[in-house]
Design a protein that fits this description.
By secondary structure, this protein is an alpha+beta fold. The protein has a single domain, classed as START domain (Alpha-D-Glucose-1,6-Bisphosphate, Chain A, domain 4, 2-Layer Sandwich). The chain is about 15% helix and about 45% strand. The protein has 3 helices and 15 strands. The strands form 2 sheets. Strands 1, 2, 3, 4, 5, 6, 7, 8, 10 and 11 form a 10-stranded mixed beta sheet that branches. The chain has a 5-stranded antiparallel beta sheet with strand order 9-12-13-14-15, with no helix packed on it. A hairpin with a 6-residue loop joins strand 2 and strand 3. The N and C termini lie far apart (about 35 Å). About 30% of the residues are buried.
Amino acid sequence: MDYKAIAQETAQEILRYNQDTSGWKVVKTSKKITVSSKASKKFHGNLYRVEGIIPESTSKLSEFLYKPENRVTWDKSLKVYNMVHRIDSDTFICHTITQSFAMGSISPRDFIDLVHLKHCEGNMDVISSNSVDFPAYPPSSKYIRGYNHACGYVCSPLQDGPLKDIYRMRGTIWKGWEKSEISHCPQEPSTFETSDVYPDRNERKTVPISN
């Protein structure tokens, strides 16, 4: 499997989402962030985009978001986030295990994701990830293996100062049903609700997502 090619393709997909201005509907606003959604063309569910301003340089912000040792300090939906294979200085494969949700009715899942940091013109950084097959970490009987569609962050400077925009798009399949999940900026205390879509049953239920 050509992991470098997949990483580059995923980063480009996140950039296309970032540049796409049509069809997004604002579903949540606060003093710090705006959340928008639109139907995905790749899976049965929605994409979510979170936009906010963080008073930090692009390099420091992207480093904070990208480095594996930082992830569990701000993403409380995860209980394990380990780098299992380094491809190059900007690309690695990680194994993650989620917390349980909805008072334990949704058990923890595990994921194998390819994570990549791309530096672009205009002092813009893209941190992207996408689930991949990795023979060294096959699915186990202990956890149900999930799948993440292309997701990530775009950190770019504002024209009138050093503050940054940050975007997060995510679509997750959790073995038998699809989950359109809102993940939000580091240190953002807000809680959102999103629908879990069950393709085989005409049923939805709402689960709070918070950090």
